[in-house]
TrEMBL record:
It comes from Daphnia magna. Residues 1-17 form the signal peptide. This is Crammer. PROSITE patterns: THIOL_PROTEASE_ASN, THIOL_PROTEASE_CYS, THIOL_PROTEASE_HIS. Residues 25-80 form the Cathepsin propeptide inhibitor domain.
Amino acid sequence: MKLYLAILLVIVAVAVASKEEEDLWKSYKKKFNKNHSSKEDVNRKRNFIKRQKVIEAHNRDNKEWEMGHNKFSDMTEEETNVLRGTKMVKRRVKSASEPIYPVNERALPTYIDYRSNRCLQPVEDQGECGSCWAFAAITALEFNHCKKTGARGPLSEQMLVDCDTYNFGCNGGDFTQAWQYLENYGGAVNGTSYPYVSGTTQTNGTCKSGSNAVAARVGYYNWVIPYPNATLIMSYLQMEGPLPSAIKVLDSFFYYTSGVYSDPACIVSDEYDVNHAVVIVGYGTVPSTTTSPAIPYWIVRNSWSTGWGNGGYFFIRRGVNMCNIESWTAFVRAA
């Protein structure tokens, strides 16, 4: 009799869990407008339930940052790997005298946040194309062109994806190579006249740069040297504006929603172990409490839409070169 009751309880528990998973899956599909064929739905649901368990375990054990579902939750690893589109080439330091910015952290503001600055364009979505490098390059150039001229407007990432022969379009690239291309071939065109479409087409298009007028030119760019140096990055951020960088993206990062991201597996020894381009737009510190120390962080812009993370942004631990973010910062100045 006891064995019968035990088996019955197991059957009931499995049935309840299955019903809860089905309800979660239906709710997720409705929220993120997912429509799959009946055959595909089985595999997509399996991916979603796998992520659901990871998210639950993380949020139960980690108090510094939270994970949550987003448009990636039912995707395969092959699909999310497309988003890892940075391919940094060997670092080349340009030969030009650099201004001496203060490197004493006490002389710097305690908080910088460019997210509401009029020169920073809205967060965009690279879609299913490894074009993060183009978005990083254009974001910084847009900001600096606006800061110099007062003219605020979008520049074209699609032009770089289609035309930049120094990079590889949807197959990845290096934001400094993009600036070199723009410096050599005239400049960036207006994003309204040459809109981004590769997130939908998932491929490069035919280059049309010759039919569009140049809207912004690259005057100079370089790395933040020496590296990794968080205080120096803070100085350049204050003086130059948003700074593109490259990071290593782990699976955990895809489901970030809030808090200060960190992962022990993202402290890496190889500086070339990076696969995604982002833009640092600020920094700050989470105050200490009676139970936890202060947490310094970077405010970083992503190119996975405003529906990802915190309105398209994320915080990541500052001062420890988390995910190599402090190894690849660079700046650009508009001509």
